[in-house]
Design brief:
The protein is of the alpha/beta class and about 350 residues long. It folds into 2 domains: about 170 residues, Rossmann fold; about 160 residues, 2-Layer Sandwich (Dihydrodipicolinate Reductase, domain 2). It contains 11 helices and 16 strands. The strands form 3 sheets. It has a 7-stranded parallel β-sheet, sandwiched between helices. Strands 9-12-8-13-16-15-14 form a 7-stranded mixed β-sheet. The longest helix has 17 residues. The radius of gyration is 20 Å and the shape is globular. It starts with 6 loop residues before the first strand and ends in a 13-residue tail after the last helix.
Length: about 350
């Protein structure tokens, strides 16, 4: 489908939580003229059968039923390694922009990826990817947008203005993160079963007594693109809510601590031209951002203990995944970042 008839868009992995949010957002996007949604498990069924809250006539098809050569934009919402193979195949077939929601192109070096995820299926494409957090790194250039993880989105938005100004004065960073169960994906597991998740809180990503969650190197690598930053201690927790995420970040630094007004001023300065990041004196709650594409930031200063405390809240499925993916598409194609997302502010 040509651009004069609207964008031809494909979604691969459209039956998961992030994929279904993409369908919901793109089905009403004013620039999308044709939408194809791939799902191996639901091919032949209507999206509205599987997700009744999504009002669309679009049906699921098998991935090989989509002519990738006609796609202006493809969104890939598969797991790591599988996603890289799909991205490579789409580009070889002639798809235009590819927005990847997995971790496969987020890290700056193949060696780091392989340390945390295993062998990479398409290392030759690393140089073509752009880390898709536009408020920090600008709009995407090139054929691949590496959509950030939800935890790194919240962490980097809160920390980047501090690291940019304090630099080597930051001695340590500890991130305590709480996330809704949808962050674990639609495929059920013992951990996400109602009986396990309800009335419970679960710290995870601990391997042999050591914090080792796969988002850790992503956070560290992106902060080091901004300025000097130490290694990060990152502990995620699963809490019994459907969606949303709150991070409390403790920063130890040398020298005099900034005032809260200083930090809020840094946020205001760095994010003044962006529509989905806001800073307030009030400490954010998950309910403040659920079902929106906003990130809400705040800060506190513990002078008694000599620590700066940062707060960051996002909806893990929107600003932490699908909303950000549409935002990245908009910017890459020269549109306003909030096109089709205006109702999510």
């Amino acid at each position: 489908m040509g651009r004069d008839m609207g964008l031809s868009v494909g979604i691969y992995g459209g039956s998961g939580y992030a994929g279904s949010e993409l369908v919901r957002l793109l089905a009403g996007h004013p620039e999308v003229g044709g939408l194809a949604v791939a799902s191996r498990g639901y091919a032949g069924r209507r999206v509205s059968e599987v997700y009744p809250h999504i009002s669309t006539d679009t049906g699921y098809v098998s991935p090989d039923a989509i002519d990738a050569s006609r796609l202006d934009v493809a969104f890939v919402a598969y797991g790591h390694r599988e996603s890289a193979e799909a991205v490579a195949g789409l580009l070889d077939a002639g798809a235009g922009l590819v927005v990847d929601l997995s971790a496969d192109f987020r890290l700056p070096e193949v060696e780091t990826y392989e340390e945390w995820y295993g062998e990479h299926p398409a290392p030759h494409l690393f140089s073509e990817s752009h880390y898709g957090l536009p408020e920090v790194f600008g709009k995407a250039e090139g054929r691949i947008v590496a959509n950030p993880g939800c935890y790194p989105t919240a962490a980097i938005l809160a920390l980047a203005p501090v690291v940019r100004r304090v630099g080597n004065g930051v001695r340590s960073i500890t991130i305590n993160a709480l996330s809704g169960v949808s962050g674990a994906g639609a495929k059920p597991s013992v951990k996400t079963h109602f009986v396990s998740a309800n009335e419970n809180a679960n710290a995870y990503g601990i391997v042999d007594g050591e914090p080792r969650h796969r988002h850790t190197p992503e956070i560290e690598a992106m902060l080091r693109r901004v300025g000097e930053s130490p290694e990060v201690t990152f502990i995620p927790h699963l809490i019994p809510i459907s969606r949303g995420e709150l991070e409390t970040i403790t920063v130890e630094m040398d020298g005099e601590l900034p005032d809260v007004s200083d930090v809020l001023g840094w946020y205001a300065e760095d994010y003044a031209d962006w529509k989905f990041v806001e800073a307030r004196e009030e400490v954010p709650q998950i309910s403040h951002v659920a079902n929106t594409n906003r990130a809400r930031l705040s800060a506190a200063v513990d002078r008694r203990a000599g620590k700066l405390i940062l707060f960051s809240a996002v909806d893990n499925l929107l600003k932490g995944a699908s909303g950000a993916a549409v935002q990245n598409m908009n910017l890459a194609l020269g549109h306003s970042e909030d096109l089709g997302l205006e109702h999510l502010k």
